[in-house]
Each structure stands twice: as C-alpha cells, then as structure tokens.
C-alpha cells in the first residue's frame, strides 16, 4: 500500500483519499516514537480493506465514460457527451452550440488547458445561472446570489445567507446529474445541514435522489479537472 504521511498538529490519526492517493495525517508526536509508529502501522492495517475499496472505486470512476481519457485531454465532455474535436487555424478555442470543440492547430498543452478552462467557464456562467433560475422557479426556492466556483473537490455549496456557489465543472456532467447538485444546494436554502429532515426534503423534490447521488459519485474524478 502506497501512502504519504503528514505530521500535523492534530491529536488523532486520519486517512484521506483524494484522487486515488492516500494521505495519512498523524500527530507530530508520532514522528519519532517507535511505539506510535507501531500503533500507526496497525491502524493502517485495520483500514486496509476500506482503503483498497476507496481506490478501486476511484479507478472504476475513471473508467466510467472514459474519464481517464478526459483527464489526459484526449476527450472533451459537455453535458455528459463527448464532443467532436475539430482543428482550427484560428487562435481561439471554441465550443459550439452543437457540441463541437474547435482546437487551434499545434497548441501546447498548457495553452490548451488555459483556453479550455476559460471557454468552459464562459459556458458554465450562462448555463448554470439559467438552470439555477429555472429550477428555483419550478420548485419554489428562493436564493440570494449565485457565483461560479473554481474550487476543486466540491460540486457546490450554499451558505446561511442563501448564497449558492456551483462548480463550473458541473457542465461536464449529464444534465440530470448536474441538476441534482443544483437542487441539492437549493434544498440547503431551507435546511442548511444534512439531517434526515434535509434528505426528506430532497426526496420530495427528487424521489430518485439516491440513484442520482450514486451517479454523481461516478464523476468524482472531475471535481478537480483543469485545476
Ligand atoms: Zn449538501
């Protein structure tokens, strides 16, 4: 098992698995203590199965819809569909309304990433704002403001002032999956926590939310795409 250990001010050991990599957080006192190192080893051993399962889930999610190729910029997604890639002699990268992506010829990877991110953000700003407005109206929610976010690892958020933030990468997902996130955040304007009351509320709007939540997990690898 490969893992990285970080010694921090925390009081107990924690394991974090992000993008298929294992990071172990341990108290500083563990660093030079043989006793504690032994304790740490046993702790990790007891979590081995859970860790393997998490990594297997991540790898499965990468294979899902060829996300591994998406992360290597060999495939490009828009609303869950693979876009048709065309080379252009122009300098700008463009995503068209009929789902084609025009990429400048002989572009280097760093420039491609920069232009791609800018183009996705442009589309996300318009599309996600519209979708939020539509779904809020349809289900009778009130929110204060909407902002696009670039923060990785999270699809959306809603604070106690009913300000909603949505990850621009939601436009990579099939519409029904992205809509689940939008509705999830809208439900937080009523219930800020993840209590039973919250989930009952989500279920009233989206009876199949459990399946949608599972679908969303399949795209987990994309939360930090182009970061
Ligand atoms: Zn939530």
Q: How many β-strands, per DSSP?
A: 11
| CATH architectural name of the largest domain | 2-Layer Sandwich
What structural class results from the helix and strand content? Answer: alpha/beta
Bound molecule types = zinc ion
Q: How many discrete structural domains? A: 2
| Rough outline | globular
Percentage of β-strand residues: 15-25%
The number of distinct helices, counting runs of at least 4 residues, comes to: 7
Order of helices and strands: EEEHHHEEEEEHEEEHHH
Average predicted confidence as pLDDT: 93
User: At the fourth CATH level, what is the homologous superfamily of the largest domain?
Assistant: Metalloproteases ("zincins"), catalytic domain
Which stretches are poorly predicted, pLDDT < 50 over at least 5 residues? none
End-to-end Cα distance: 27 Å
Overall helicity: 40-55%
Concise description?
The chain contains 7 helices and 11 strands. By secondary structure, the protein is of the alpha/beta class. The strands form 4 sheets. Strands 1-3-2 form a 3-stranded mixed β-sheet, with helices on one face. Strands 6-8-7 form a 3-stranded mixed β-sheet, with helices on one face.
